[in-house]
Amino acid sequence: MYTTTLLLDLSRLKSYFPILDETSTVQPTSITLEYIGEENFNRINIELLQKLEEYKLTEHHNELLYLIFLKHEQIRVRYDAYWENYNYDLTSKEVAKFFLTFKETRPTEHFQLVAKPTLSSASAIKDTAIAKWMCEVLYDKIEQRDFPLGLFGEKLLFDLIGNDPESSKTIDIDRLRVIANKSPKVPTVRLRKLYVELCCYLQPYLIEQTHLTAQDGTLLTDQQAYLFFDILEMIGYIDGEKITSEPKDYIHSMFSKHAKLFTS
């Protein structure tokens, strides 16, 4: 957690904070950031100032920085939750697939347990009885609820056992099969909605307070799109090197699909 103070022209922020009175002017304003540390704050602060120089918006640096971090703190909770849920689903699938392979091995079939580091050669327990015993120990630990939830994720019990993790219910082979054959989806659409939510939060400021305005009926201008792309990249939400389309086209595409959720 990092707390800092920004010198803000509060008269520019009245549409965001209607309680500000008509005499509100430049004042030091504190902001506490849970998801941005001091090092990242300083980096984003410098990068934003450099970008705003390109757009001739340096006089709005502090106000935009404040709004960016304010909204980022709100949406980061959901951003992390979406990725956490996806990773939990992957873990459940991997564990289910591992146990399903173990349980469906025929008694006469040779079975071995293999450990393979990414950059090294594999090592294996080739004795079938020992390998099966080791897998049975792991299986029993999960079934007895004797494993660290923080390591495996809280969804594992629900996925493998059901709605009541406190019951004495055992792992069902059919349930294992269902979870093992699931295909967890990267939360791309949900994440892009968050990106658009951040951009739509900043857009009124650009229109009301800067020269990056937009005509009535215009959802988004190219200049606004370029700036939003830069902001999303400096925060770390997107990686420009992995995006093949033009920055403005990337933002326009997201806006056309999701902006109506956040604009009146």
Short structural description:
The chain has helices at 38-54, 61-103, 128-143, 149-152, 155-160, 173-180, 188-209, 222-235, 247-258; strands spanning 2-9, 26-33, 113-115, 123-125. By secondary structure, the protein is mainly alpha-helical.
Q: Explain this structure to me?
A:
The chain is mostly helical and 264 residues long. Among the domains are: 95-180, no CATH class; 187-264, no CATH class. It is built from 9 helices and 4 strands, in the order ββααββααααααα. It has helices at 38-54, 61-103, 128-143, 149-152, 155-160, 173-180, 188-209, 222-235, 247-258, and strands at 2-9, 26-33, 113-115, 123-125. The strands form 2 sheets. A two-stranded antiparallel ribbon has the order 1-2. It has a two-stranded antiparallel ribbon with strand order 3-4. Helix 1 runs antiparallel to helix 8 (222-235). The longest helix is centred in the first third of the chain and has 43 residues, at 61-103.
